[in-house]
Structure formats: structure tokens, C-alpha cells
Amino acid sequence: MKAEAGMYAVLAVGLAVLVACAGGPGEAIEQPVMAGIQAQPQPGQMVRTGGFLTAETMPNAVATIPPAPKEGEGRNDLDWKIFRETRALEGSDRWKLAQSDNSYLPKDLLKDFSCSVGAELTAENAPTLAAILGRTTIDAGAAAEAAKQLYKRTRPYMHNDGNICIEKSDALGKSFDYPSGHASLGWTAGLVMAQLAPDRASQVLARGRSYGESRVVCGVHNMSAIEAGRTNAAGVFAALQGSSAFVAAMAKAREEVAAARASGAKPDAAWCAKEAELIKPLVVE
Q1: Average pLDDT over residues 80-103
Q2: Model confidence at 5, in pLDDT bands (50, 70, 90)?
Q3: pLDDT beyond 60 at 249
Q4: Domain that holds residue 271
Q5: Does residue 65 lie in a domain region?
Q6: Averaged pLDDT for residues 184-198
Q7: In CATH, what number is assigned to the domain containing residue 128?
Q8: Which residue from 131, 144, 230, 236 has the highest number of Cβ atoms inside 10 Å of its Cβ?
């Protein structure tokens, strides 16, 4: 029971970090049910449980990612150069996509991946998938947390001039850069979606990569933190394959995605064509 309680505490911290990264708690209406406590949802509000992983199966990013860059190192210089050069994207369509990608709510993640899957995905037609994304978000954040607290790397806008795509809040400034929780959950979501629609894996993973890179465009994470987030996510996704609850939920979600694709309901074609251009890899000279 003591270990279980500790695990729930880690999950709570991981979710709190992700909320801070999203610009404040007001954006997230889903709340995890911790330590067996039952919550009564408000009308129209989802309630999700904790993640799929346990204290024994949760990867630790400290063991899998490189140490965070330090001031004076070449990796750090490159990170800050990328931050400064991407400030030129302010006000562009890519900047606006980064603002949209600030949300990690399941309903928004479903929308984010709809073009890449080739079907309109919603919390109504894919409720199991929405629940999976909610739970893997917690797993991704919890797996990254030890590394965040070890390296305590501050965000690039705190060291360089330039605007960011969301409000500069105290909560955001007090949370850490490395590894990126957003990149972790976005790449995990991409891996989940690619497993459910393997014939669309290239498109899906391109969207998952761009979701993480939106944090660089936004100016709230360094590029190295995005790359570390993807490594963290790969470990989380591998561990998820050993969760019987995850495997069972994925079987159900696969049916939801297949039904959505068979229904013929597709996202807006004009937007999908535009998105395909916007999500190309960032190129910084």
C-alpha cells in the first residue's frame, strides 16, 4: 500500500507539471481519480483514472535520456540559437498551430491526429481511445518527472529575448524544460495512433513529431528537450505493451478507429492539406 500511495503521488506530480506546461490548470477539465477516490463528474465532464503503468513498470527518463545541456556547452548554444531564430515565426500559421498544440486534452489530441489518420476522431466516436490518451498522458508525465527534477533546466525564454506563443506565467516559469512533457505525451499519442492505424503510421508519426516541435515554435522548450521527450515516450510505449489493461483497451480502440474510418466522416480536406505543409520538420540554419 505504501508503494502504491507513492506511485499515485508521482502521477499527481506528473499531471501537475503537464498542467503547468499547458499554461495553467483552467484548461484541463479531466482530473485523475487518485488512490481509489471516486469523483462525481459535473455534467458533460470526463473523469479518468490514473495511468496504466505501476511503480514497477514505469520507466525512468534519467536512465534513458542524455544529461540536460548546460550553459557554455555546444548543445546549449544550439538550443538557444534555435529559440532565437524561431521567434521569426511569431504570428505565422505555424505559430498558430503551436498555440493550438498547447492543449493536451484527449478531445484535442483526437482532433490533432484526425488528418493523419484520415478520419474524424472525436470523444463521441472513439471514447476508449480518448480514455487511453488521457491515461498515457499521465504515464508520459510521470516517467519524465525524475529527470525534470534532477536537471531543473529552465526554459529558453528565461535566458533569451523574444515572445512565446502563450502567456508567461509564474507556474510556467517554475516548471522545467528537460525533458519536455508535451513532447513525451505527443510522441506517446503518435505511437498509440500508429499502432491503431499502421497503414497511416508515417503520417501519424509526422504529426506526433510536429506536436513536440510546436513547443520549440512556441518558445517554451528547447529542441534538446523535445528530442529527450521522444526518447522518454518510446520507453513509456514499450512498457505499456506489458499492461494487460492497455492491451485490452487498445483492442477496443482499434474497433473504434476502424469504424470511424469506415463511416466516411473525414476532417476538412483543405485544412488537412494545409496541416501537411505546416507539420514538416523544422529547419533552422
Answers
A1: 98
A2: very low
A3: yes
A4: 2-20+92-276
A5: no
A6: 98
A7: 1.20.144.10
A8: 144
Q: What is the mean pLDDT of the chain?
A: 87
pTM recorded for the entire structure: 0.85
User: What is the domain count for the chain?
Assistant: 1
CA-to-CA distance for 236 and 165, rounded, in angstroms? 28
Q: Name the residue type at position 62.
A: V
Kindly state whether residue 26 falls inside one of the protein's structural domains: no
